[in-house]
Structure formats: structure tokens, C-alpha cells
Amino acid sequence: MSSRSLGLSPSLYDYLYGWQNEPSTLAALREETARMPGASMQISPEQGRFMGWLVALIGARRCLEIGVFTGYSSISVALALPDDGRLVACDVSEEWTAIARRYWERAGVAHKIELRLGPALDTLAALLAAGQAQSFDFAFIDADKEAYREYYERCLELLRPGGIIAVDNALWDGRVADPREDAPSTRAIRALNAFVAQDPRVDASLIPVGDGLLLARKR
Q1: Of 25, 30, 72, 153, which has the fewest CB atoms closer than 10 Å, so is most exposed?
Q2: Would the pTM count as exceeding 0.85?
Q3: Exposed, middle or buried by CB within 10 Å (0-12, 13-18, 19+), for 24?
Q4: Residue 204 burial by CB count (10 A; 0-12/13-18/19+): exposed, middle or buried?
Q5: What CA–CA distance (Å, rounded) separates 113 from 101?
Q6: Among 2, 89, 6, which residue's Cα sits nearest to residue 41?
């Protein structure tokens, strides 16, 4: 995992980060998270900005997030939503999402975010059972890697045609390209990358931002 884009020299990354003009609330959240265990799970500033740009580009109003952590990605998405937009954010950790809630308020986006604590697959199943198939515009997946394929399938059902799924950690700090790496999480990411590349239901792209972002646009 990586909280900055892979393969950039320190000077080039400093230039990239300086260009981002990161909002002060996000900078404060990133700095607080950096002092915590698991800090590398946080997405990079450039990835957050890119996802917000995507959300604005497609005119998204309803979004999904699978894996909140301390809230950097949810703020990045929510800031790009209209005032009446909605992000359904799924996580199992009250500890981490308590930090996220604090920063959602600080960023002025708490009214756009609906936190659902519990297994994300249960939440996604409940949304489908409630008749919300094809009603979401954007989904971000960044949770337990071995469930990535299941998250992808449920999110694809919930997404409208033209909607976008973004899957984090698609390059997995380079481990997906190392044949010696055979951990279950690595195998799961490799398998999803390979599957999405051939999935006739989507148009896909794999880009080296952050720890690798797999993008799938529903046809």
C-alpha cells in the first residue's frame, strides 16, 4: 500500500503535490492519519483530487464508498458532489470512522455522507433489495482485497450505465508484477485486474496514480 503515487522521484512528487493545492482540512487529516497505525491505507492527495475530478466530470449525484478509513477519500468525493448529493460510505470500524466523522464536519460535507457501519456486502445487498439497482453514478472500492470481486459485482449492479467504479491498490505497491508474491490479497487483486480487462460489461483503464487505480465505466 502507498499513500503517494508509485515510482516518482522525491523532487517530482514534491512538484506534483505542490500543484494539487490540497484543501487545508484534507491536509490536516492526512497529517493526523500519518501518525496512526495503518497510515499507509490512506489514499494520496493526487488520487483524491483525481477522484473528485471524475465525480464532477460525470455529474455524479449518488456515490458509494467501500472502505472509509479516516475519511480522506470520502471528503474528496463529497466536496465534488452538489449540495444535495449523497455518498453512502461503508465501513466496519467505529474507531476509524469516528475520525472521519470529525473531519466530515470540519470540511462541511457531513450532510452529504451517510455512514453505514457493518459488512459492506450486507449494505450493498440491502441497497439492491431496496430497488436501488442502477441508481448510483460512482463507486470507490478500497477495503479487504479478497472480497474485491464481490464488491465489484455488487457495485456494477448498483451503478447506472455510464457510471464509474474506481478500485484502489490495483498495483499493490508493485506486488502484482512480482511472480514471487503469492499472498491471498495479491492473488485477489491480480485476478480482478485480469477479469475487468476482459469484462464486456465495462470499458476499463488501469492507471498508476496512488497505489494504482483500476477504473471501469459501465456500458
Answers
A1: 153
A2: yes
A3: exposed
A4: middle
A5: 9
A6: 2
Beta bridge partners of 89: 65, 115
For residue 4, the model assigns a pLDDT of 63
- Alpha helices, DSSP H, located in the chain: 10-20, 24-34, 45-57, 72-80, 94-107, 120-129, 148-158, 184-197
- Rounded to whole angstroms, the Cα distance separating 79 from 53 reads 10
Q: How many CB atoms lie within 10 A of CB 15?
A: 11
- Determine the Cα–Cα distance for residues 45 and 5; give it in Å rounded to an integer: 9
pLDDT at 2 over 60: no
Segment 165-217, tens digit of pLDDT: 999 999 999 999 999 999 999 999 999 999 999 999 999 999 999 999 999 99
Q: Any long-range contacts for 91-96 (C-beta under 8 Å, 24+ apart)?
A: 91/67, 91/115, 91/116, 91/117, 91/120, 91/143, 92/117, 92/118, 92/119, 92/120, 93/68, 93/69, 96/68, 96/69, 96/70
For 206, residues 6+ apart whose C-beta sits below 8 A from its C-beta are 170, 171, 193, 197, 212, 213, 214, 215
Tens digits of per-residue pLDDT, 108-125? 999 999 999 999 999 999
- How far apart (Å, rounded) are the C-alpha atoms in residues 193 and 199? 10
Copy the grid coordinates of residue 103.
Answer: 473531519
Mean pLDDT of the chain: 95
